Amino acid sequence: MECIFCKIFKKEINTKIIFEDDLTISFEDLNPVAPFHILIIPKKHIDSVNEINENNSIYIKQIFENIPKIVLKFNLKDYRIVSNIGPSAGQSVMHMHFHILGNRKMNWPPG
Questions:
Q1: Beta bridge mates, 24
Q2: How many angstroms separate the Cα of 88 from the Cα of each of 30, 31, 91, 97, 111?
Q3: Which residues contact 18 (CB under 8 A, 6 or more apart)?
Q4: Can you give the pTM of this predicted structure?
Q5: Is 11 exposed, middle or buried (0-12, 13-18, 19+ CB in 10 A)?
Q6: Is 97 tagged catalytic?
Q7: Cα separation values, 76 from 1, 4, 37, 43, Å
Q8: For residues 47 and 97, is the Cβ–Cβ distance under 8 A?
Q9: Consecutive 10-residue runs of the chain (111 residues): their mean pLDDT?
Q10: Residue 2: its pLDDT value, please?
Q11: What angle do CA 70, 8, 42 make, to 5 degrees?
Q12: Which residues face 17 on adjacent strands?
């Protein structure tokens, strides 16, 4: 069974796409916690950061090369990138993803 994020990048579920290339796709979070809340995911199912290896690290490279393009598109100067790993850390979809949060004051420590 495929996860919801796999269905999104295969266009089986309609959502507002922000940016897309051959390896990644970004879209609006369905439950935003900031005025700017975008998810960026690999177009390959990788459960979490714990699964990154030499065979799939190209997806991570592409994600982090695309984040500046996304924030520039929205003129976002200050932002936070978050990846939750595992259910107790808040990962609700077991497909690696990064939250790009902005347009509000971020507190520290988070959580």
A1: 42
A2: 20, 18, 7, 16, 11
A3: 26, 27, 28, 38, 70, 73
A4: 0.94
A5: exposed
A6: yes
A7: 36, 27, 11, 24
A8: no
A9: 90 94 96 96 97 97 98 96 95 96 92 67
A10: 83
A11: 55
A12: 27
Query: What is the DSSP code (8-state) at residue 107?
Result: P
- The first and second tokens of residue 80, run together, are 């936070």
Q: Which of 37, 95, 97, 99 is catalytic?
A: 97
Question: What local confidence, expressed as pLDDT, does residue 101 receive?
Answer: 97
Q: Which domains does the chain show, CATH number per domain?
A: 4-102 (3.30.428.10)
Using CA atoms, how far apart are residues 63 and 24, in angstroms rounded to an integer? Answer: 6
Q: What is the 3-state secondary structure (H, E, C) of 42-78?
A: ECCCCCCHHHCCCCCHHHHHHHHHHHHHHHHHCCCCC
Residue with tokens 């520290």: 108
Burial class (CB within 10 angstroms; exposed 0-12, middle 13-18, buried 19+) of 67: buried
Cα separation, 25 vs 94, in Å, equals 16
User: Residue 69: what residue type?
Assistant: K
Sign of CA dihedral 53, 19, 13, 39: positive
Residue 49 is classified by DSSP as: G
Specify the length of the chain in residues. 111
